[in-house]
Amino acid sequence: MPTATNIVWHDGAVTREHRYSLLAQRGATVWLTGLSGSGKSTVSVALEQMMFKKGYLIYRLDGDNIRFGLNSNLGFSAEDRKENIRRISEVAKLMADVGVISTSAFISPYIADRQVARQIHDKAGIPFVEVHVDVPLEVAEKRDPKGLYKKARTGEIKNFTGISDPYEAPETPEVRINTDKLSVNDCAKAILDYLVEKGIVEQRDDVVNKPVESANGTANGTANGATNGAVVNGSS
Ligand SMILES: Nc1ncnc2c1ncn2[C@@H]1O[C@H](COP(=O)(O)OS(=O)(=O)O)[C@@H](OP(=O)(O)O)[C@H]1O
Ligand SMILES: Nc1ncnc2c1ncn2[C@@H]1O[C@H](COP(=O)(O)OP(=O)(O)O)[C@@H](O)[C@H]1O
């Protein structure tokens, strides 16, 4: 890929700290890596609901979804997966620079690519929390929520992670969740507990007084004290 030359960074007057102050939160990236069917999307959705109810602005970046748009030109070769992860890392970094907490749920099978994701965040001074969504291959394959393992076994899908392509598990992730041993809620809670323990987010009570259950992208909760449905800051 060509590298840009003759370019100069341009600073604005509104800083990251101004935006964080406006939003009453700091940006961060929660990076979920694991086999297909390990539970990355399911846990991300649960964490999003849990944190949204506490008044956090949180946004999910998800492998399948991103491949419909931004990364629709990428396949599953090692080179394409690397570019997939690099682009997502840059997007997550930008979102965190705005002040958004994002979850990135990507198989991201290669240690080197995840290292790049971490470096992009480290360089920008943004917290990067790697979560290994850990499950034995047999369990993921048995779940097979999209029927992809079946297709991979018959050879209909080539280069399928865990079957005909490698998955390099993280050795020292910030958080490891075993989705065959913990409930979805407990997995999400383990991540939130880590964020609180490390001071990445503060401890907050729920401020949204209805469950956030809609699966069509629109949240159905309303915030305590808010008349327009906007979420109010739950910090004291
Ligand atoms: N060959 C192959 N290998 C792995 N996964 C495949 C493949 N082909 C299609 N899919 C579907 O694509 C989803 C993974 O996309 P990602 O962007 O997360 O992959 S990667 O991080 O670039 O490796 C993955 O989503 P999840 O099952 O949610 O992980 C699959 O639905
Ligand atoms: N503790 C758990 N955490 C996450 N998913 C779980 C858990 N227990 C069972 N599952 C099931 O495993 C499947 C995981 O699928 P999905 O979230 O799409 O995985 P991925 O995004 O990693 O491909 C879902 O059918 C989900 O209901």
TrEMBL record:
It comes from the Eukaryota. The keyword Ubl conjugation does not apply. One of its GO terms (molecular function) is ATP binding. Pathway: Sulfur metabolism; hydrogen sulfide biosynthesis; sulfite from sulfate: step 2/3. Keywords: ATP-binding, Kinase, Nucleotide-binding, Transferase. Pfam families: APS_kinase (PF01583). Its EC number is 2.7.1.25. InterPro entries: APS (IPR002891), APS_kinase_dom (IPR059117), P-loop_NTPase (IPR027417). Residues 26-178 form the APS kinase domain. Residues 215-236 have a biased composition (Low complexity). GO terms for biological process: hydrogen sulfide biosynthetic process; sulfate assimilation. Residues 213-236 are annotated as: Disordered. Belongs to the APS kinase family. This is Adenylyl-sulfate kinase. It comes from Gracilariopsis chorda.
